[in-house]
Amino acid sequence: MIRVLLVDDQPLIRSGFRALLDLEDDIEVVAEAADGAEGLARVKEHLPDVALVDIQMPVMDGIEATRRIAADPDLTGVHVVMLTNYGMDEYVFDALRAGAAGFLVKDILPEDFLHSVRVAARGDALLAPAVTRTLIDRYVSQPLPASTAGKLEQLTDRERETVALAAHGLSNDEIARRLVISPATAKTHINRAMTKLHARDRAQLVVFAYQSGLVTTSDP
After folding, report:
1. List-wise, which residues carry 4-aspartylphosphate (predicted)?
2. Which of 13, 118, 183, 208 could be disulfide-bonded to 176 (CB atoms 3.0-4.6 Å)?
3. Rg (CA), the chain
4. Which tens digits make up the pLDDT trace of 55-88?
5. What is the C-alpha to C-alpha distance for residues 185 and 19, in angstroms, rounded to an integer?
6. CA 110, chain centre distance (Å)
């Protein structure tokens, strides 16, 4: 059972998402919260698999709540997915760097929304195509943090290949087929790269891959 927490200051948004999730046999909404501070408390209380968190909220915004969740060693199993509107890309990038597993736009189709919750629960990066290109074009040019610069050299050639493919949105199964290796081996390469780069999840691998120049927006 996938345990989900809804964090949004708009009751109508929360009720709409909850109505969709409650219809699914494999998903359970364990709690709701109206701001980031309350959301952080509910995360600690319920330990959900997925926390759907709005970016802009009163008391504590979604980015700060995400940062605190990512920094807490007791919450490593919580995958934070940011909820955003179009035109909010600057906040999305900050959220990914804070530790979010990805983001969704609020006008997503119901079937895509449900699929995305399941993808996030598996620990895969969730980067909505509608805003990913703008996000990358606008923010990847920012300097790589000093704590991350130079770590690309720590990766083996195969680890670089798997990170590059993950940055293009490929799943472990797709990476395995592309490199003619087993899915388990692909997962091992991804996990080792995450450890070496101190990345919380695949979304942070994507940010690193573009910022470090491992992949570029002109790559096929």
Report:
1. 54
2. 183
3. 17
4. 989 899 999 999 999 889 899 889 999 888 765 5
5. 38
6. 19
What is the arrangement of strands in the sheet containing 102-105, beginning at the earlier edge strand? 27-33, 2-7, 50-54, 79-84, 102-105, 126-127
Q: What is the pTM of this model?
A: 0.71
Adjacent-strand bridge partners of 4: 29, 50
Which structure tokens are listed for 99?
């530790």
Which residue intervals of the chain are DSSP H helices? Answer: 11-22, 36-46, 62-71, 89-98, 110-122, 129-139, 157-167, 172-179, 183-197, 202-211
Show Cβ contacts of residue 128 under 8 Å, excluding neighbours closer than 6 positions.
Answer: 102, 103, 104, 105, 108
Look at residue 28 and give its three-state secondary structure: strand
Residue type, 71: A
The parts of the chain modelled with pLDDT lower than 50 are none
Please give the pLDDT value at position 80: 92
Q: How far from 56 is each of 10, 51, 66, 142, CA to CA, in Å?
A: 11, 15, 12, 23
* Cβ partners under 8 Å of residue 210, min gap 6: 136, 140, 167, 216, 217
Amino acid, single-letter form, for residue 157? D
Cα separation, 163 vs 170, in Å, equals: 10
List residues bridging with 52 in a β-sheet: 6, 81
Quote the pLDDT of residue 114.
92
Residue range 116-138, pLDDT digits in tens: 899 888 877 666 555 555 555 55
